[in-house]
Amino acid sequence: MPFLKDVPKEWQIEGRYLEVIRLIDGVEDFEFSYVTGNALVKYDSNKITPDEIIESIKKIAEIGKENHSHLQKFTSDKKLEALEFLKNKIEHYLNKKGR
Hints:
It contains three helices and two strands; from the N terminus they run E-E-H-H-H. The protein is an alpha+beta fold. The chain has one domain (about 1-95). Helix 1 packs across helix 3 (about 80-95). The chain starts with about 25 loop residues before the first strand and ends with a helix.
């Protein structure tokens, strides 16, 4: 996932924010490195394909980018609220998509 290597440092999110990737139906586990741009995804091949995972991750990144200014309004003590806000946006997209 080399496209994520270019995410500006101030937009890189903590590991717990990447938990939203697990919202994708069929994704069982996910690890990512901004340094290498590599992701390790454990998934159920009966539910989802690698191309569908990449498409969903790109859309999740797009949702994060579209909501970046709103997410910046959350203070550091409100990170869990910011995560909930982002999760709700992503769940809405995934439910529409049928993932």
